[in-house]
């Protein structure tokens, strides 16, 4: 039976914050506890006035379970099953990368350049679907195809498309094995895996231990492998005046420019992210 128990909201909050402090420090722990409480319908004002709160046993269990996951450095987005991207909510789970702010900047670049309706767009490595779905929502009558190597990730893309009320075509494919794409596109965009294995040493445990390695890493000896392949495919499958957009590893800006130029790309532009790092590369073939 579902039992109900009464708690001092302040005591519960203080307990939770003190459990999180060894992992996150004080400020972040307060913030995380506040988010967890709010997710359970307990507004921060109730904690401030120490209002008694009633938790039923499932609710109580789940708030403690979530706090435990946070203690184990599971990112809050996986704990809650959702993340915010470009002003919208996307469901996430550990089979997809948590959408990043840099990727919102990539979207911004695409929206500045492309105003026309009815664009055909391919998102390679769709993960949560945040890129393709956002473009479908922001650009009038865009037709979006999402590709990922991982079936569980594509399920998340599809669920998010349903939640946001749009139709997209999904392809379960390894882009590295493809010689053709299914059609011609106005925009090909990709935020492929681009972290080198050797960068693991400097990564935070919440990313390294919980986000999918398939989404993150490339071999040190061939860090541009996805870009090489996608440029070759784009050369054949971009419509006239079609554009190619990449999110890139900040250490490879110049190499990416060289790679594009070597492959006959025109109008190659490297764009910094808000931290001043080389992050977005855009180009075309005519
Ligand atoms: C960096 S994540 C990007 C996810 C999402 N587009 C975003 O920006 O948050 C890279 C994605 O590429 C997918 N991926 C990895 N290798 C792939 C391959 N060989 N072919 C197609 N997709 C691949 C991963 O499963 C992952 O979802």
Helix proportion: 40-55%
Count of DSSP strands: 13
Q: What is the beta-strand fraction?
A: 15-25%
Compute the separation of the termini in Å: 68 Å
- Total helical segments: 11
Layout: helices, strands, pairs:
Layout: E1 4-8, H1 9-39, H2 44-48, E2 52-56, H3 57-71, H4 76-80, E3 82-85, E4 88-91, H5 101-113, E5 120-124, H6 130-138, E6 143-148, H7 151-163, E7 169-172, E8 185-190, E9 195-196, H8 205-208, H9 213-216, E10 217-218, H10 225-237, E11 238-247, H11 253-262, E12 266-272, E13 278-284
Parallel strand pairs: 5-6, 5-8, 6-7, 8-11, 9-10
Antiparallel strand pairs: 1-2, 3-4, 11-13, 12-13
Helix pairs in contact: 1-3, 5-6
Could you explain how this protein is built, in words?
- The protein has two domains: 4-72; 93-284, Rossmann fold (3-Layer(aba) Sandwich).
- Helices cover 43% and strands 23% of the residues.
- The protein contains eleven helices and 13 strands.
- The strands form four sheets. The chain has a seven-stranded mixed β-sheet with strand order 7-6-5-8-11-13-12, with helices on both faces. A two-stranded antiparallel ribbon has the order 1-2.
- Helix 1 (9-39) crosses helix 3 and helix 5 runs parallel beside helix 6 (130-138).
- It starts with a strand and ends with a strand.
- The chain binds S-adenosylmethionine.
């Amino acid at each position: 039976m579902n039992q109900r128990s009464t708690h001092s909201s302040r005591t519960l909050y203080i307990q939770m914050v003190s459990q999180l402090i060894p992992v996150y420090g004080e400020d972040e722990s307060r913030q995380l506890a506040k988010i967890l409480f709010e997710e359970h319908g307990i507004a921060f004002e109730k904690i401030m006035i120490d209002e008694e709160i009633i938790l039923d046993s499932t609710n109580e269990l789940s708030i403690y379970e979530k706090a435990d996951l946070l203690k184990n450095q599971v990112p809050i987005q996986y704990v809650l099953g959702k993340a915010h991207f470009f002003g919208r909510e996307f469901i996430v789970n550990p089979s997809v990368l948590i959408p990043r702010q840099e990727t919102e900047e990539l979207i911004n670049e695409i929206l500045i350049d492309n105003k026309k309706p009815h664009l055909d767009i391919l998102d390679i490595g769709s993960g949560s679907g945040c890129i393709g779905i956002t473009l479908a929502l922001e650009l009038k009558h865009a037709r979006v195809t999402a590709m990922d190597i991982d079936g569980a990730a594509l399920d998340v893309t599809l669920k998010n498309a349903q939640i946001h009320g749009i139709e997209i075509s999904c392809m379960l494919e390894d882009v590295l094995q493809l010689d053709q794409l299914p059609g011609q596109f106005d925009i090909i965009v990709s935020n492929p895996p681009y972290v080198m294995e050797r960068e693991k040493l400097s990564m935070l445990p919440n990313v390294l231990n919980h986000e999918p390695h398939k989404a993150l890493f490339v071999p040190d000896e061939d860090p541009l492998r996805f870009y090489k392949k996608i440029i070759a495919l784009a050369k054949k499958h971009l419509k006239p005046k079609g554009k190619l957009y990449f999110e890139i590893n900040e250490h490879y800006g110049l190499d990416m420019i060289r790679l594009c130029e070597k492959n006959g790309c025109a109008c190659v532009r490297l764009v910094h992210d808000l931290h001043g790092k080389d992050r977005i590369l855009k180009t075309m073939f005519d």
